[in-house]
Amino acid sequence: MLGVARRRLGSGCVLAQLAQALRPAAAAAAAPARTYSAAAKEITVREALNTALDEEMSADPSVFLMGEEVGEYQGAYKISKGLLDKYGPDRVLDTPITEAGFTGIGVGALTMAIDHIINSAAKSNYMSAGQISVPIVFRGPNGAAAGVGAQHSQCYAAWYAHVPGLKVLAPYSAEDARGLLKAAIRDPDPVVFLENELLYGESFPVSAEVLDSSFCLPIGKAKIERQGKDVTITAFSKMVGYALQAADILAKEGISAEVINLLSIRPLDRAAINASVRKTNRLVTVEEGFPQHGIGAEICMSVVEDSFEYLDAPVERIAGADVPMPYAANLERMAVPQVDDIVRAAKRACYRAAVPMAATA
C-alpha cells in the first residue's frame, strides 16, 4: 500500500495518496463518446501513474508521497520510480506496514490527527459546515492479482462507494490512469483510487494531448469505449478489457455491444448509462466484486428507476463468486468473471442463447 498527501499551505489542503474515498455527488450529465486521438506513442499504466505523480508534485510543492517501499525501493511496482531522487526524503517518505498510521498522518497534515478515512476524512467537510476540506488520494489494489493472496485480490469498490463524502475512481487504460490520478490529486475531497496490479505493465496508445502536463479527466464522467446498438455492457478497471474482448466476439455473431468504461464509481455517471440503455434496450453489468450490494446492483436499480420502460430483456449482472477469494491462482480465476461469462450474458439479453441467468461468474 502507498499514500500521498498534500500539506496545508495557505489556503491549500492535504492530499494523501493511497486508497481513496468518494463523496456523493449530483447525477452527472451524459458523457459524449470519447475515443483515442491519433496516438503519439504507447505507454504503460505504470508510466502513466508515475508521470502523473511527478507532474503534480512538480506543480504543487505541498504534495508529498508516503507509503510502504515508495522511496528507496521506488514502489513495489515501480510507480514511484525516480521521485525520491528528484524530490528528496521530505516529500517521498518510506513508512512501516502501518496503513492506519500513515493514513492518519496524511489527514493530519491538514489539521489534526484524524484517524480513518471512512470515519473522519469522508465526514470532515460536512461536520465542519464546509470549513475543512480533506484532499486525500488513497491508492490501493483492486481486483484479482493472480495468486498473490486473498488480501490483494479482492474488489472493494462497493465498500468505498457506499460512503458519502468519498469519491471512488477506477481507471482502466494509461489515459484513464494518468488523467484520473491528476484529477484526484487536485480534488478537494478524499478520493479512493483503485488500481488493478495486473494492468500496470499493459501498454495503451495515448495522444499528445494525454501526454501534456495539463491533461486531466473529469471526475464523474463515464467513457464510451465502443459504440453499439444491441446491448449495453458497463464495466470498470480490468473488466473493461474483458468487455471489449467480449464485444469483439459478439460482433462476429451479429450482436453490436456498446461498452461503457465507468471510470468513476462515485459519483456514478447515471445519465450516460441510461442514455446508452435507452438506445440498446438491454443491459449487462460486469464487476470483479461480490454480487450482493455491488456496483452492478446499483447500476441495475438506476436503470429500473429511470429507464425501465426502455428495457426489452431482463438486466444481467456478472460479478465475482459470492465466496471469500481463493488463494490458488486457478481457483481465483474461477471466482472472477471471464470473457465467456460476458458473452453468454449478452447473448441471453439478446435472446440468442437459452442459458440460465446468474448473478455470479
Automatic annotation (TrEMBL):
The keyword Oxidoreductase applies. It is an enzyme of class 1 (oxidoreductase). This is Pyruvate dehydrogenase E1 component subunit beta. The lineage of its organism: Eukaryota, Viridiplantae, Streptophyta, Embryophyta, Tracheophyta. Its EC number is 1.2.4.1. GO terms for biological process: pyruvate decarboxylation to acetyl-CoA. Its cofactor is thiamine diphosphate. InterPro entries: PDHB_mito-type, THDP-binding, Transketo_C/PFOR_II, Transketolase-like_Pyr-bd, Transketolase_C. PANTHER family: DEHYDROGENASE RELATED, PYRUVATE DEHYDROGENASE E1 COMPONENT SUBUNIT BETA. The pyruvate dehydrogenase complex catalyzes the overall conversion of pyruvate to acetyl-CoA and CO2. It catalyses: N(6)-[(R)-lipoyl]-L-lysyl-[protein] + pyruvate + H(+) = N(6)-[(R)-S(8)-acetyldihydrolipoyl]-L-lysyl-[protein] + CO2. CDD domains: TPP_PYR_E1-PDHc-beta_like. SMART domains: Transket_pyr. It holds the Pfam family Transket_pyr. GO terms for molecular function: pyruvate dehydrogenase (acetyl-transferring) activity. Keywords: Oxidoreductase, Pyruvate, Thiamine pyrophosphate. Residues 43-202 form the Transketolase-like pyrimidine-binding domain.
